[in-house]
Amino acid sequence: MFEFLSVLWFFLIFVLIAGYFVLDGFDLGVGVLSPFIARNDGERAVLRRAIGPVWDGNEVWLLTAGGALFAAFPNAYATTFSGFYLAVMLVLFGLIVRAVSFEFRAGDPGWAKLWDGCFFIGSLLPALLLGVAVGNIFAGIPMDAIGDYAGVPLLGLVTPFTLLTGLLGLAMFLAAGAAWTALKAPLGSELRARAVRLRVPLQVIALALFAVVSVYALAIVGTEMDPALSVLRWLFAALVVVGLAASVAVGRFRDDDLKAFLAQSAVMVALVALLACSMFPVLVNATPDSVGPAITIFNAASSELSLTWMSIILCIGLPLVLAYHVIIYRTFRGRVNSEDLTHY
């Protein structure tokens, strides 16, 4: 039972990460794209309104993933959050700055340019650094005998591979942001037209980066992977490629913004699933020169009692969270119109 719960929570944490990657991904993408596709205050207000009702609820998935990692695999939580301390603080700084700028922008027009700049920076930092962090846990970090990070803070975490994974994550967020903007901007508007024009190049860039990261991971990083999951890895890799192609096709040739966004979201879920299948059963890989071993679900899991109670809480809490999202997205469905911009 203990091993089953450990495996279950390994994949459940990746489910939570996928939820954040999809839901807050387009929020961050909209924020990073905002200086480049919004040409006036009216268009910037449309972007803020497009994510305004949902962005804070979307961040719940990141907080839940961090809490689940702490409760289920405390050793992995301790190593990642202490080793990546400066990077984590920069991500939190970005999320805080984004929230503050978002709330202050409408009520403080005299500082509009400052808040718009903060909105961009606060979206860019998490969008880039989260991918860098993922690259590190996959490629491995130097660890001492007790499992603590033994490298140089921040600078030791930046390598060609982790930069590529950071850029891949950023490209996925930007493509999702463009797809969401195209879905929410008024029909016939210049804002939607710019988002549609950006959507395909960003998806092509994301596909190219995915290919480069995959080759780099297999040929140079050489992280060991569970052979039993090789079929699933190939399946999810194929879904990433097919999903991007489908998003391009339905968006460009059928002009269907909803299906283009859903296909882009499916790609992001497949990418996280590919990462999970490539990592299992490892939570944080160790570099070859590490004194300590890699952190796995078998040497980092908490007690069976803790995992059992977490599973019970999940069965109660997850339906409530999903119901909340269904209500919010259904309530604010449709494109943004002039009547929606009163408070933005």
UniProtKB/TrEMBL annotation:
Location in or out of the cell: Cell membrane
Source species of the chain: Adlercreutzia caecimuris B7
Transmembrane segments: 6-38, 83-102, 114-141, 161-183, 204-222, 234-253, 265-286, 306-327
Domain of life: Bacteria
Cited Pfam families: Cyt_bd_oxida_II
GO CC list: cytochrome complex; plasma membrane
One GO term (biological process): aerobic electron transport chain
GO molecular function: electron transfer activity; metal ion binding; oxidoreductase activity, acting on diphenols and related substances as donors, oxygen as acceptor
Signal sequence region: none
InterPro entries per the UniProt record, alphabetical: Cyt-d_oxidase_su2 (IPR003317)
Keywords annotated in UniProt: Cell membrane, Electron transport, Heme, Iron, Membrane, Metal-binding, Transmembrane, Transmembrane helix, Transport
Name listed for the protein in its UniProt record: Cytochrome d ubiquinol oxidase, subunit II
Keyword Transmembrane in annotation: yes
Similarity remark: Belongs to the cytochrome ubiquinol oxidase subunit 2 family.
UniProt cross-references to PANTHER family, sorted A to Z: CYTOCHROME BD-I UBIQUINOL OXIDASE SUBUNIT 2 (PTHR43141:SF5), CYTOCHROME BD2 SUBUNIT II (PTHR43141)
Membrane topology: Multi-pass membrane protein
